[in-house]
Amino acid sequence: MRGHFCPRPCPSDVRDAMTATASQRTNLLGMTREEMEEFFLSIGEKKFRAAQVMKWIHHEGCDDFAAMTNLSKALRTRLAEVAEIRGPAVVYEGTSSDGTRKWVLEVEDGTYVETVLIPAENGKRRTLCVSSQVGCSLDCSFCSTGKQGFQRNLSSAEIIGQVWVASNSLGPRRDPANRPVTNVVMMGMGEPLMNYDNVVPAMKLMLDDNGYGLSKRRVTLSTSGVVPMLDKLGDELDVSLAISLHAATDELRSELVPLNRKYNIRALLDACQRYLAKCGDTRMVTIEYTLIKDVNDQQEHAEQLAELLRELPCKINLIPFNPFPHSGYETPSRNQTMRFQQWLYELGYTAPVRSTRGDDIDAACGQLVGRVKDRTKRNERYIRSIQIDAD
Ligand code: SAH
Ligand code: SF4
User: Fold this and answer.
1) Does the entry feature the keyword Transferase, yes or no (predicted)?
2) Is the same domain home to 58 and 113?
3) Kind of pairing between the strands at 133-135 and 219-223
4) How confident is the model at residue 391 (pLDDT cuts 50, 70, 90)?
5) Of 114, 139, 257, 290, which residue is least crowded by CB atoms under 10 Å?
């Protein structure tokens, strides 16, 4: 059980709660159904209150207990004393010319995370790219978030808060046939499996009918390959899986993804097979392959990749490298990208090139740069700069 709250309040607790500051109240936003039921039991209420309040929070976008009209007045007053619904504050919201939307959110300690919504061209899918950490400790050589270093894990409230904020700003979500956010990918800043304890409850809320009611096929966790946590995830959830592979030999992958020195390609692919076996359906793993000029974009790389993946039910996504200052890497030409795609095709793989979208608001994948290390001046400059970018 995460978080803490008073099991059965004595009068002095109630008095304290009445003068409590926001941060002393229990934040209900990131609680799973089980956690919320426990919370209600602990304040002497029935379990079913959890579903009622979850619907207010996640279906209606409500953050005010006073508006929860199916609760008694006494309960609403009590909740306002001991609990709160606190999401991240929106400090910037922008829409790029291709319809990609981006929010910069201020989380608890004055740091910022970015969340991006990418609409499909046919208008049917709206995929939210969610962050799990501020920065990342895994230091992949081609990733700007990794270059920022690790600052901290996001709480489950801060993770689900991104879905909450995006959904709220897109309108009502009561109609399951027309949800504001239809898909979630954990592909923003951070490595989700390095923040397992907070990511899993947030993902449970994405799936829960009283939360966002998304099917497990529409919620994807992307990982660079934290093998033990991947095994653990398979025991608890069966969301879709994306693996950041980027190379088909250990030598090259260790250069790009240092974590490979700990969990090599064989160990990672074996873990994928175990994960799929636990899902027990016809799911495939998505293999993410960031194409970097003259590093992993040659014919031999395509051949090695095709050979390596022979046994794994998977689809490959090609992502042209998104450049950032001082990365030392370049994006392959469009022709080279097409050639790589064609080589894979001839080897039996249809590998879509994931388009880089939202460029004009700096929102494309891999550009969730976590320019958040310095909490003062640099942040201010950042917010100013993206506002200018988006104008
Ligand atoms: N940490 C997780 C999820 C976040 S990164 C992971 O590594 O999977 C999301 C995706 O963006 C990953 O596939 C990552 O390899 C890719 N990526 C990171 N930096 C990139 C860049 N500069 N250009 C293209 N893709 C990048
Ligand atoms: Fe972290 Fe993923 Fe970036 Fe690697 S690619 S540094 S794991 S966010």
Assistant:
1) yes
2) no
3) unpaired
4) very low
5) 139
Q: What is the pLDDT of residue 356?
A: 55
What does the pLDDT look like over 277-296, one tens digit per residue?
A: 999 878 899 999 999 999 99
Query: In degrees, to the nearest 5, what angle opens at C-alpha 209 toward C-alphas 275 and 163?
Result: 80
- Closest ligand 2 atom to Cα of 146: 6
| Protein residues with CB under 6 Å of any ligand 2 atom | 136, 138-140, 143, 145-146, 190-191, 224, 244
Domain holding 154: CATH number? Answer: 3.20.20.70
Is any ligand 1 atom within 6 A of the Cβ of residue 168? no
**d(Cα 299, Cα 303) in Å, to the nearest integer?**
6
User: Which CATH number is 43's domain given?
Assistant: 1.10.150.530
In the structure encoding, which two tokens stand for residue 314, read together? 């998977």
Residue 18 lies in a domain: no
Is the CB of 296 within 6 Å of ligand 1?
A: no
Within a domain: residue 225? yes
**Please, is 312 exposed, middle or buried when counting C-beta atoms within 10 Å of its C-beta (0-12, 13-18, 19+)?**
middle
Q: Does 214 lie in the same domain as 65?
A: no
Q: Is residue 38 part of an annotated ligand binding site? A: no
pLDDT: which is higher, 283 or 349? 349
- Do 167 and 271 fall within a single domain? yes
Model confidence pLDDT, tens digit, residues 106-128:
987 888 898 999 988 777 899 99
Least confident of 26-40, 173-187, 257-271: 173-187
Q: Among 68, 84, 100, where does a domain finish?
A: 84
Q: Is 191 assigned to a binding site?
A: yes
**pLDDT for position 20:** 46
Task: Identify the residue whose C-alpha is closest to ligand 1 atom 16.
Answer: 366
Catalytic site positions: 114, 365
Give the nearest ligand 1 atom to 323 CA. 22
353 has which bridge partners?
318
pLDDT in tens, 134-156: 999 999 999 999 998 999 999 99
pLDDT digits (tens, 9 = 90+) for 327-336: 999 999 999 9
Q: Which atom of ligand 1 is nearest to the CA of 365?
A: 11
Q: Is 213 annotated as a binding residue?
A: no
190 labelled binding-site residue = yes
Contacts of 58 (CB under 8 A, 6+ apart): 164, 167, 205, 210, 211, 212
